[in-house]
Records
---
Amino acid sequence: MKSLPEVQQEFLTGAFGLIVPEAVLVGVACALFLLGLFVPRRLPAILLALAGVAGAAVAAALLGGQEVAAFWQTVEGTPFDPLSVAPFDPTGLAAFVRWLALGAAAVFLLLAWPEVRDGNAADYAACTLIVAAGVSLVGRANDLVSLFLALELVSIPTYVLLYLPVRTRAAHEAALKYFLLSVLSSAVLLFGFSYLYGLTGTTNLGAVVQTLAAAHRQEVSPVALVAAMMAVAGLGFRVTAFPFHWYAPDVYEGAPTGVVAQISFVPKVAGLVALARVLGLLSPPIDDLPFDSVHTLIPLMLWIVAAATMTFGNVLALLQDNLKRLLAYSGIAHGGYMLLGLVVALSLPEARGTVPAQTGLDAVLFYLVAYGLMTVGAFAVLLYLAGPDGKPETVDDLGGLGRSHPVAAGALGVMLFSLIGLPLTAGFVGKFLLFVSAFDAPTVGPMRNMYRVLAAVLAVNAAVGAVYYLRVLGVMYLRQPLQSSDRPRGRPALVAAVVCAAATLVLGVYPKPLAEAARKAVPLADDRPRPTVADVAR
């Protein structure tokens, strides 16, 4: 039988095989940094970046099953749980997030075409690939160190992206605000991670979760609660959760539209997945969590944060006339919707072995895809319509868009209907799954019916959000065009918008494949027996 050091050594030596697609993305990014010195044109840079995404996708498809099999075989015949030893987790959620990151990278590269300049195109494409690699690594990081490095792999290239396309005073201000607040949030998160390491003596997330869960059966450590609150605060910045959301409207308004499309979606994916990992939602056994509502107040804190986030986002969006600021507050509200799923997931220990219709986390995964399609698609339309004068900038600038640009107006209309949550769109299915997960949560334990109250808060906020989305639709189709239709347009951005709109409709009509993929990505859906090793961290 293998000893613990031997198993750990095998995982470390085989770790590279678990991140080959991400290594392909980073390798192509390095080549692009060099290429930019000699061939500064947009076309070869973006084509090479797209080829890198395709290569990573091929590697992911070829290695997916093999890496999972090797992952389990490493600990076959031993009493060790692989998630308490391995630095990376290739199962379940990891594959889901990897494919999500690759698809998003392809769309973002299309959005780069009309905005980035020739001299910066290679650097822009390279940073986009590194961000995609970082998001994918967040999905499979099973160690505090690898998780933090993956998050920084998302953040640091984003600072560069905010500066590259447009060098105006507003863009510089947006980049500086995002940089300073992001660094502060990373420091808070790292401080919380140091507490987790100090309490458990290990950086492996699986071992951390099991050790804390075992300790909380006896007595809850105040230091563990402080660490959890710091993690929520540090990652709340990326999710734009209240009260860590104040930077978003200013950054969205001043930053280049293509980059705003990225920061509206990518940090939310990274933040929500990282938060789920730190709270133990991705480390089986799922019925024994370190921060459940029976032993801690962490779920109640997230309940308050989720309710406040969706309410503040929607109410303040009602007051906005600037399109980017409106979408910023809209993104804040949708971050609150997705936090609801994490609150529900933390209630699973109260279910006493029963499996609810929705676990909360699978609803979050589905909604992440739906949110990415409708939000990134909306920014793609704005980027396509942007002219030398910077318009459309306000809601009134979209007046008569249905007549002047019917395809763009149709795509934006689909995205707005999905943001509202109307039937036959992905947004409706996502909101419905979140609502069902909250309504189906256990009615026992300290929080009892508070989950259903949160479901009601979601429904009310969805109705409030419909007001400002319908206002935009009314301006597009009920007013006369205010601008000429012959201004320059980036057709790749229109292609991205149409693709997002089509995918939104397809998932609204036939959501089963994505819903099943999200369901299989959560640990509760994996019925493979997994041994528990509470003493692995020793």
---
Amino acid sequence: MKIKEVKVKGYIGGTKDDYFKESFKGEIQDVVVKWPKELGVVHPFKFEDAEKVYKHYGLINGAINKIADNIVGEFTVDCENPNVQALVNDFMKNSNFTVKIREWIREGLIKGNGFLEIDLKEAKIRVINANNMYVRRNTKGEVLEYNQYLGDMSRFTPNSRKLITFKENQIAHLPINYISDEAYGWGIIMPNERLIENMIKNEQDLHKLISRKAGAPIHVKFGQPGEAVSKTSIDDMSSKLQYMTNRTEWVTDGNTEMKVIDFGQVGQNLTDCWLQDFRELIAGMDVPEVLLNSGQLNEGIAKVQLAGWQRKIRSYQDLIEDIINNKIIKPYLEENGMSGEEVDFIWNLPGEEEKNLKLTTLNTLLGNMSTTENMKRLIQIEIAKILNITDFDKYLPSPEEGLDEQNSADNRALKMGEVEVAVEKKEVEKKKEMDIKQPEIPKAKANTKAIGHTHIKESQDITLMEWVNVAEANVSYIDFLSTLIDKVNKDKFEDLSAIEQARIEQKTEEEMVNRGLLTETEVKRLKSILRSGFRRNQPLSQIVSDIKDGLNLRDRVYIKEDGSEGVLDKKYRPELIARTESVRLTNEALKTIYQDQGLKEWAWFATISDRTCEDCMGMQDKIVKIGETFTSDTGAMAKQPPLHDNCRCVAIGVK
């Protein structure tokens, strides 16, 4: 059968391909889930959607990270009380505070809500994914509890094993872009959702257009204008075009025209549209364009943008500081007996360039002849702070009321020739100063070159701070206390632990417990007592009392040198443990600090009294390299104090 060839006008032939077309929008019906009131307030939007945008769109990812980095930056927490400072430093170190806070803030910026779980007893914090966290409130808007639910919402029950409930004080909730009376914040992604969608679509269209341009699409025109062309001929040419490559040569007659399609200004229009959305996004996220490495801004505009940006960052910092203070720092201090103490957050610490500029200015002022004595003292203190000299107050004089007036009077007297009067006045003041009774702090013997003292008072009321001040020098108390707490946390307490002694002696743990050694739980409790005592600067007598009340100590059965069994009555053990472990851990902490300072040697110092044993007296003034063994004149040996139970000796670094 012969098929009649059909000729048509205006017929279009071609291959299937992707064309620009408007996406159809239709409605769908979701399965309605009745929201469980027991869980809390429903989320205002899907937090998962904001998380996807952050993960998959580099521009938003970079903007969020820039904001988080600028909020946290370099910061510190300052406290007037050195014990509080050491406590806060210890918490921040053990909890990995800076890293966790940055993660918490980033979660808040992305999803509008950051949830931080707080464990004050263990000094730990961790960020919980906001996708699964819900706030339950009463009718007045007061938070009752926080709930975490990881199960299927349609199968939720109040007794579900996948439901975890947190008390109000166990969660620090950070709402970003919070609207009054709402339970959640909105973050900075969702308010800009439409702009972000448009930008992503524009980028896709632009890249599709570029891809098509790179493929050089060709339009073929057949026949003479106004004449019909065979449909078969058009389809045949369309089929051939599918296999056309840049190596193919084509020859046509005068009735066939071939040319590359020109898209005109479509690409430029897409680019302009994207840039407009980008500028609106910058305004919506309140991020300076200069921080996103975009645009050729002049220096003046950049400075104006950054100035406004700093005010925005400060508002974030005020919110975060308030939550950290009331949810973490203050409760933690109360947990450790430091209630009522105040702390100051110092954000945006200066960089090296700024520090150097400030030091140059201060040194210029210091050398100025017109700078008063009190001003010089203030400048010296400020320089010490910039150089991070923590114990400058030991060496630098503080400003004094009336000092400048007195110096002016002295200078006038000298200029008037009244030298004798000025000298006499100075002598009188010097005599008065020498008549003031100074606190007795015995120094180390001169031939030892050591930094430290040889006497420690007998009273059980001595505190850790007094011990450090008397026992050593040139060691920051705050650094010492932080190091000491770290030693307590990591130490195995081998001489007291049933588990450790069972391992050493190849016995069962039960046998060791029956000998009076401590179970794993009791060792943890002892650590808690020592940490609390050291942090609060408690006297030894209080630590003894806490051990007595907090541990159910048993008689200690031990093996004497002759192989027979000895028994230590449990009533003597609290004081023995408190004294011995405090001295042991103190010397461990000092050793670490001295090694960090680069000291190579240390000297043995005994606590001199009628109770000092011959072995410890024989160690007095001995100097060895840190890590090597001290040998007493009596033949006793030890790598560091304590030499024996209830030992009160200390090893001091040697310059």
---
Amino acid sequence: MTHNTQNMGTLAGSGLLFMIAAWGALAQTGGPMDVQRLDDSPLRIENFAEHRATAVIFLSARSEASGAAIATIRDFNAAVRRQNVMTVAIFPDPAESGDEIRAFCQTAAFVFPCYRDPAHRAVRQLSVRVTPEAFLYDSKAAIVFHGAIDSLQQAFGDWLAGRPAPSGTAATGTPIDKSLPARPFQDPYDPISFSSELIFEKIPGFPAHHASTMAMAANGDLLVAWYGGSYESSDDEGLLFTRRRKGHRQWDQPQCLLQNLKEPVGNAVIFATPDGKVWIIWARMESTQPMRAHTGWDRTSLFYRVSGDHGYTWSKDEKFPLETTGWLPRNLAILLKDGTTVVPLSDERNNRDVSFVVLTKDNGQTWVRSHSMPNALPQGEQPAVAKRRDGSLLAFLRTRPHLLQTESLDGGVTWSPAKPTDFKNPDAAISLCTLSNGNLLLAWNNLERGRQQLHIARSVDDGKSWSEPQLLESNPGEFSYPSILQTPDGKIHVIYTYRRYSIKHLEFTENWLTTLDRAN
């Protein structure tokens, strides 16, 4: 019997002879095996000399014992395949079709050949009794181990090191001749879905774009609004708007909903109320002109417009029915279980950032302001709010150097003192979303400075812990002001500023975030 002399180089004399003799006593000639591919074409397994060793495992797609061994088999193959060890699975139950076996193997994430033995040629040749049952061949087709799956990896290690023949436990499982019904397989690798595109490439007269917001209309259309103009705070800034019609992949040509050179438009938020109407609440910049770029946010007033036909036509703009001097919208509204619409806002007057929400229980007929979200320095603004499974609300606040976090136990009326989190933030906007399964998604720039990287993280425990942040964008340029929305089909939509040239849209499934690779 040939052994790996490199691994046995330290062995000598009688010790080496004893070990070879011990393995030789166990070994029996297995020889070639005749099996069938999953399409029932014949195959003879006889290329043992091409591999350091060959592991042959008898399985059943219908056996619970075989199903319980899947992880052990995968671990064994992963541990030895790069050592030129071949793993082969053989399914002897003639009732199991090739398609059934293939489904089992794909669900199990097996990355090695799987064959059938409906005539039991290999079973009789090796006196196989149960499934699962394992055999280990050396390169000369001699069997050096026969026994339980759980002993296979240890047996391979012992054989490789030239240690005495193992006393592997006898295989136990489902008897070869036992008839079992077919069973369904649950694929652990759900499909992933991902697409991305710029919502537009160029809008004449509006070179710079920022602060996008998103909602789904009652007819299933996806609606997006943002401001665009010569630069941030320019007097030609306008409120721009587009839609992606239900069932379509293309976005409509953006249109300018309003433009006022004397009092330009600023941030806006678009949302649908339970009665099917679409609202846009937007900030009118009322600072004296001329204004320097990136200023004027502390002197705004809120206005709103409403559409009863999914955003095709709009009411005239009205002043919001509360005193809103210095108020600014940014993040998406949320709908509570009792039908209350919650809109996050902040007050940016006097170089202080005060965060709060406004609430309506009657589709916008009346509004009330919540208590402020208490926080010490650094102060936080532009709160992003999401529902938790127990009905409480979680909010993150934008500020440097880390995001702040607060919660409400009474539907957004009062809030706990905001506390710093471990999430970095360069004083840039964030977005928080509750998925239909209760998981949370947070999108933000997880950086101390700059907005050149955009991140996303997921929480499956109502924000108690979060996954490692993943990059959505890492190319040169600014990627900022994300908004996250999940539509009823389960798709997650993220929009954000793309280098101030455009607004980018991503569409993906939650599985795209969590299943980063699969067996191969």
---
Amino acid sequence: MMKTKFIIIILAMGIVGVSCKKTWLDVNTNPNTLTSSNPNFILTAALNQTITNAVDYNEIGSYWAGHWTQSSSYIYSAVTFAYQFTNNNFNWWDPIYNNLGDYQYIINNAEATGQKELKGPAQIMKAYLMQIIVDHYGNAPYSDALKGVSSLAPKFDDQKAIYEDLIKVLDTAIANIKANPFSGALVGSDITTAGTLKGGSSTKWIKFANSLKLRILIRQSRITGRDAYITTEIKKAVQEGTGFLDAGQDMAVNPGFVASDGKMNPFYERWGYNAAGAIKSLARYPRPTKYLFDVLIAANDTFRLKRLAYAKGGENANNPGVSTQAEVVSNYVGTPYGAPSGYTAPSTSYLGPSVIVKGTHNRPLYLMTAAESQFLLAEAVQRYGATLGLPNTAQQYYETGVRESFRLDGVANPVTQANVVLASGIAESDWAASPDKLKAIWFQKWLSLANFNGAEAWAEYRRTNYPNIPASAGAPVGQKPPVRLFYPLSELGSNQANVNAQGTIDVFNTRLFWDVD
């Protein structure tokens, strides 16, 4: 099973700057025997593998969160839009657990190899990935996992207990980072870079850890009886003193993508162009939804509309970043969510310049954005008040989140343009005009995640039931969307007794512990 399989072994990776794929870096022949390697090499490749894997699960999240659908230039996917999937579909369990094995190797071996400063970041990434496992599958191997041959069929832990332990893991990670700040010799192994977040910055890793804590805690905020636990843990994060991801401090990964097939930004390479500049056939597949366009237009927020999508016909190959058609609202054609026919690629809008511009193969991919961090802070203050000890009001965090979303999307003069929306008098844009402040936060967070983190958008949609995404046009009338995934067939085959012990999984009704309604 994947929790006992190989770690990444780096053969010739003295220079950070080449995108890696596990297929050509992996030299283990026995998946249950862990070959030794240098933890700083493993950290580099593991971070790259994390964001490469994320392209897959962010895709399905983008569909089920109502950001994307498919064009009818491809055969209709009943698996995705009629929800006709089984445990043969959507297996992110195996690649994530493989990736977790890499971070566990660093945790186990960093000190012995004189690289103590790598242990804290590896613990943070372990917590990051385990939350993703829980948010897709629920109960999962945790305390008995990642032990190689000593635990070939690990037991499953309760999902709530995993969540609680992840907070402890992050506390330990922060303590380790404070005790062992990055040295010059190993700074290059940390390929997290974006905005003011520089690779090898111990302070920014701690900010990411605190923001990740906030994500884990706010996910539980609608559970009756959890307020005391949540507020206690948020106060501890505030009192730690380093803070959270601030304006401009997106947590992203960029190993130094190069213009070579298989070594470019994997999102760009899937949905954009190949190394020679030819458009990929899959660029015709994902379509921004009509619903996404409708709510942006209703909010008079065409600034982000024109960054999240190209006008129908896509990007002008001779003028990168600009649409082939005139960039007027009437030329932005969204596809109804789950529409099985009638919306071909040439007649509808493509993914936009916020993520795809011809020639920009080397953009980073994001673990967490500053916008998300600010919206989490906004919700924390709105729910629990000034007693948390945070310095700003919910409104201030909310408005910073909106401005950060404009910046991330690449809107020109983002603060100025965001301020137009923030003062529009329109509910769920303008704080003062929004009668339900939580819904305003949820809605703007949902917008900020479009194109960047579909998995998080889907998790938040399940938590909040907001915004009111229309039913899939390709699903049976009255069919509810899924609330989780099946355990994959591979896990059933290798760990059957423990999978069966979780009971019968109904992907439409067996909710995760934080999904209260």
